[in-house]
Each structure stands twice: as structure tokens, then as C-alpha cells.
Amino acid sequence: TESLTKRYDDRAVVDNLDLEIAAGEVFGLLGPNGAGKTTTILMLLGLVEPTEGSIEVLGMDPRRHPLEVKRHVGFLPDAVGFYDTMTGRQNLRFTARLNGVEGDDETIERLLDEVGLLYAADQPVGEYSRGMKQRLGLADALIKRPGVLILDEPTTAIDPEGVAEILNLIRRLANDDGVTILLSSHLLHQVQAVCDRVAIFVDGVVVAQGRP
Fold first, then answer.
1. Residues 92 and 125 sit within 8 Å (Cβ to Cβ)
2. pTM exceeds 0.90 for this model
3. What is the rounded CA–CA span in Å between residue 17 and residue 11?
4. Scanning 3, 47, 60, 154, which has its CA 20 to 30 A from the CA of 148?
């Protein structure tokens, strides 16, 4: 991003943001709720129109090529939505079909195992806890084998053991699969544990940027 800005009326939610994230890097957006992290993510995905500035994701402008960007970027939002009457496995199959990843049951099985949900794969998602839904959301974001993965508060409502597993998975995805990961969080210790570089957000402005 270069001079990326989003204003609502006279208020700048994101103000003059310059970010450069390298391939295969785990990059942290660290700041309190309301700092502008989620708005930044939505602009990167082409879901919110910037007021000023430029964006490039995998060489593409998400305003001009929104579908192409979404095809190559996995996204785990803060509040994940699924079909409650379908099982975890069925929800992932549905996402796979939407993304043209047909008949890849082996991938679904592996992802469910990686996020620690294989035991509940055939249970209706309506019976899942919020933490379980967050785990399923991570598997869902990975189903299309994205080159870039954007995670908005991915460890919300997950127990400490589960948090450690998610953070280990994030590092493995970057180290072993070369996935570029943007991690948005307000939790300093988690960002410090997995990120190569960090930008600290306060009131829409990056006040510091560099290695943890």
C-alpha cells in the first residue's frame, strides 16, 4: 500500500498507510480494537473503497481485479459465518465447490486434522463452540490453497493449547508452504511469537514498523 487512506466524513479511519510485505513473510498488524486494522484488510480484499492511495496484492489492484485477488487470498474474519445445519466437513466441501476445488476430500481431511477438528468433522457446526468455529474458519480460508492468507484476530475464544497450535500452524504455513500471512491482532505476545515484522496501529496511523 502507498499513502492508503480511508475517511468517513472528516474522520480518517486509516491515514496515509505505507506497507510492504514480502513473499513468505508473517506480518503483524498490531493495535487496539478500532485502530483501523480491519478497515485496512477490507481495502486489501477490495471490499471497501479507499478514499486515497494505492494498493497492490500479488501484483493486482483489488479495486480493478477484485475476483482475481479473492481467488488467491484466503481470509479469516473476526466473526466467522457457516451453515449451522451442515457438518464441518460439509461446510468445507461447499467452500471447495465455490472456489472450484472439486472432489479434494484428502485436502479437507488434512486441513481438519491440522486445525484439530477431525474429531468433530461430522458434527453440525451449530453445535460448535466459538473457538471451534474459528478453527474451522482457518481450514476454510486454506481450502483454495491461497498464496496470501489474511487473519483477523484468529485466536479469538480459543483455549491456550489451541492458540499454541494455531500459531504453530501459521509459522508452518509460512516456512514450509511459502504462504504470505497478514496477522491482525491486539495481543502483543502472539504477534511477537510468530511475526517476522510488525506495524503498530494507533487511531488509523502506523506509529512504528519493523522487526518485533
1. no
2. yes
3. 15
4. 3
